[in-house]
Please model this.
Amino acid sequence: MAAITLNVNGRERTVDVADDATLLDTLRNQLDLKGARFGCGLEQCGACTVLVDGAPVYSCTRPVHDLAGRSVTTIEGLSRDGRLDPLQEAFVAEQAGQCGYCLSGIILSARALLDATPHPTRAEIVAALDRHLCRCGSHNRILRAVERAAAQGSARHG
Ligand code: FES
Ligand code: FES
Model:
């Protein structure tokens, strides 16, 4: 066990975790942030995706001890003052989820895309989400949701 400090959703957090703890373990079991999901544990499905310094990473395999001083954003960190991120609102408007298991990771990858490329082509959206699986087959609605957010102006609140 060893302590590590990282910034999670804008707050400095210090946790005491096992030497081989993953970021996903730490978020879910130490910090009670359950939005990132365990799917495959093998970097194959994307359910565990969070942002580290604004870039999507598979948290299921990322050793948390590599992340001292880095900034992590989970799905819980996207809303501001009780308001959903515009991208989340677009997913609701398009009814882009069924079970929702895949969505926190997909929304975070899409958030990173729109932060870098506010008006992506459909091909760019597909490429950015290629790291994700949706077992419910909601892919077309998910793509429409990202396009809707881009068309409406996708900047984050505040
Ligand atoms: S749980 Fe991490 S990629 Fe599937
Ligand atoms: S909405 Fe069920 S896995 Fe994507």
Summary: The mean pLDDT is 96. The pocket of FE2/S2 (inorganic) cluster (ligand 2) is lined by residues 97-103, 134-136, 138 (CB under 6 Å). The chain has two domains: 2-77, 86-152.
